[in-house]
């Protein structure tokens, strides 16, 4: 059945989207307001051209690298995206198993439908896996502390402090559908049960706990004082904020615009990446997420100076398509594409992926 042949992430997106309700599909797939940034996140990759070296022995290509100090199969992990049990009942458990199966890292959203311990245990039962715990700054500091302590006790390696969300972006799809979390799904990390969550819109629910007074000097030293986990800032898009993260002694940044779901009109992450890499100057780790839909995108991000990348929606599409098997399929697809791209460009290790691997740039975009 050719309709069901999933050869690339776009095939998976189409097949998965057919299996979701309109409201779930729009919640997962949309960005904010005019959809400019979400669109550019993926299309901006097309302006870069690869510059291959030929007649290189690539029979022993090594795609591996390190993430949070652990060897990973290739430089890609799954971003923290909430509400995965709406795509498939096993939700984040299935994602964790798929990541462990391939040997890559996963970040757990505060809006996960399972606890950090359940998600870690599901992955660990398959193989070694590192997790990051995504965190929002919260009005209720005791709850924020419990989230951190539970994540640390469960064995998470890092905190991803999401810095781009003092308030939610304007997501018309959520207002149009009066989006509510489906009955029966809870947010155990946020200590919210299904009934409580369903009383309010996503936006009101977010505003009720999230602290829009968050800031560098209050929150980063506090995080350091309460946890041994690495501290990463997720949602940096400028050299200025990269320097702030260096100054505050963070372990790394994720150049991210929340998959185009927060402020629409900001730069695509691949366009914001070079200024952040330059400002970091090797003093802090730099990862990127947003719009990565092919192994060649992973390769281009590394060539532009990212050490590692993350994908959000592709994991959701995998889940919606076929639970863990769907996420396995998504990860295998990106892994195989990345490996083949390394071989076809003559790169034998991720260290070989440098600026010299990128050719003609069309400055006006695709
Ligand atoms: C997200 N993202 C996100 N980020 C975060 O810090 N906390 C969260 O709870 C969520 N939740 C969430 C839900 C859904 C449905 C999506 C699609 C995304 C953003 C996510 O971590 C990541 O930055 C983007 O998804 C990356 O872009 P791509 O790969 O989806 O294009």
From TrEMBL:
Which Gene3D superfamilies does the UniProt entry name for this protein?
Aldolase class I (3.20.20.70)
Q: Does the keyword Glycosyltransferase apply?
A: no
Q: Which GO terms describe its cellular component?
A: cytoplasm
- Cofactor(s) in the UniProt record: FMN
- MF annotations from Gene Ontology: FMN binding; oxidoreductase activity
Any idea which UniProt keywords this protein has?
A: Flavoprotein, FMN, Oxidoreductase
Catalytic residues (UniProt)? 258
| Annotated binding of FMN, by residue | 80-82, 109, 134, 162, 234, 256, 289-293, 312-313
**FMN hydroxy acid dehydrogenase domain boundaries:** 1-363
Q: Which family does it belong to?
A: Belongs to the FMN-dependent alpha-hydroxy acid dehydrogenase family.
**Designated name of the protein:** Oxidase FUB9
Q: Which organism is it from?
A: Recurvomyces mirabilis
């Amino acid at each position: 059945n050719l309709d069901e042949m999933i050869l690339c992430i776009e095939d998976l997106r189409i097949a998965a989207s057919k299996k979701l309700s309109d409201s779930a599909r729009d919640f997962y797939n949309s960005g904010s307001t005019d959809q400019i940034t979400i669109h550019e996140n993926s299309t901006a990759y097309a302006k870069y051209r690869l510059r291959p070296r030929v007649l290189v022995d690539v029979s022993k290509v090594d795609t591996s690298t390190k993430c949070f100090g652990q060897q990973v199969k290739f430089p890609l992990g799954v971003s923290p995206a909430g509400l995965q049990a709406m795509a498939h009942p096993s939700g984040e458990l299935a994602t964790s198993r798929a990541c462990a199966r391939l040997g890559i890292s996963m970040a757990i959203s505060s809006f996960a439908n399972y606890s950090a311990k359940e998600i870690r245990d599901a992955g660990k039962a398959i193989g070694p896996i590192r997790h990051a715990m995504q965190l929002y700054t919260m009005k209720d500091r005791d709850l924020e502390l419990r989230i951190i302590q539970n994540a640390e006790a469960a064995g998470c390696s890092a905190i991803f402090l999401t810095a781009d969300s003092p308030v939610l972006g304007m997501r018309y799809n959520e207002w149009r559908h009066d989006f509510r979390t489906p009955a029966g799904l809870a947010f155990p990390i946020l200590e919210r049960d299904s009934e409580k969550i369903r009383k309010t819109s996503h936006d009101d629910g977010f505003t009720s706990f999230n602290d829009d007074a968050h800031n560098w000097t209050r929150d980063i030293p506090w995080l350091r004082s309460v946890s041994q986990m690495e501290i990463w800032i997720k949602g940096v898009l400028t050299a200025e904020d990269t320097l702030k993260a260096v100054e505050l002694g963070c372990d790394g940044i994720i150049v991210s615009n929340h998959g185009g779901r927060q402020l629409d009109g900001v730069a695509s992450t691949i366009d914001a990446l070079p200024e952040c890499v330059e400002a970091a100057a090797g003093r802090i780790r730099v990862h990127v997420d947003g719009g990565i839909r092919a192994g060649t995108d992973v390769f281009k991000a590394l060539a532009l100076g990212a050490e590692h990348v993350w994908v959000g929606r592709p994991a959701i599409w995998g889940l919606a398509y076929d639970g863990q098997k769907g996420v396995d399929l998504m990860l295998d697809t990106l892994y195989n594409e990345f490996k083949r791209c390394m071989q076809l460009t003559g790169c034998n290790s991720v260290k070989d992926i440098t600026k010299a691997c990128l050719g003609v740039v069309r400055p006006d975009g695709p």
